């Protein structure tokens, strides 16, 4: 029994060591959905926190049915602190049904002490919906 417990403990330690390299910040992932009638969108933001900043890495959006046939997908990342609201990133691209992955430029940073948000607006010209996630 001790051997089984010890082997399990060693396996857990090995898994933990492989999960995040030394000094690497864990990647967080937050997801939100929105609906406009029969249309829907889903937005996921990936980011890490290190050195007192949240650093957005990438976004994944999924839209359908129909909301992505025409129109736009608009991604905005910002934060609010004692001095106001600050834009960190904005991008508008053609909408599409299905899943779209966006790699964000390096260097984006949100102070960890601020209140950050990211939102994607899915619009097809007639209807739109907004999916918003917190960055904490």
Helix-strand makeup class? mainly beta
Radius of gyration: 19 Å
**Parts with pLDDT < 50 across at least 5 consecutive residues:** 1-20
Percent helix, as a range, is 10-25%
Task: Write the H/E string, N to C.
Answer: HEEEEEEEEE
Average of the residue pLDDT scores: 83
> What is the overall silhouette?
elongated
Terminal CA distance:
43 Å
Percent of residues in beta strands: over 45%
> How many individual β-strands?
9
Largest sheet: 5 strands, antiparallel
Describe the structure.
- A hairpin with a 2-residue loop joins strand 2 (39-50) and strand 3 (53-64).
- With 136 residues, this protein is mainly beta.
- The longest helix has 18 residues, at 2-19.
- It has one helix at 2-19; strands spanning 27-36, 39-50, 53-64, 72-81, 84-94, 98-103, 110-111, 115-123, 128-135.
- The strands form two sheets. Strands 1, 2, 3, 6 and 7 form a five-stranded antiparallel beta sheet that branches. Strands 5-4-8-9 form a four-stranded antiparallel beta sheet, with no helix packed on it.
- The chain has one helix and nine strands; from the N terminus they run αβββββββββ.
């Amino acid at each position: 029994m001790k051997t089984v417990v010890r082997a399990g403990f060693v396996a857990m330690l090995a898994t933990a060591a492989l999960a995040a390299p030394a000094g690497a910040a864990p990647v967080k992932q937050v997801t939100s959905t929105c609906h406009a009638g029969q249309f829907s969108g889903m937005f996921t933001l990936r980011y890490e926190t290190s050195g007192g900043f949240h650093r957005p890495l990438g976004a994944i959006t999924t839209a359908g049915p129909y909301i992505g046939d025409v129109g736009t997908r608009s991604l905005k990342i910002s934060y609010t602190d004692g001095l106001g609201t600050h834009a960190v990133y904005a991008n508008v691209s053609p909408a599409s049904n299905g899943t779209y992955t966006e790699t964000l430029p390096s260097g984006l940073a949100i102070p960890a002490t601020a209140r950050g948000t990211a939102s994607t607006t899915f619009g097809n010209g007639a209807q739109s919906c907004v999916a918003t996630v917190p960055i904490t």
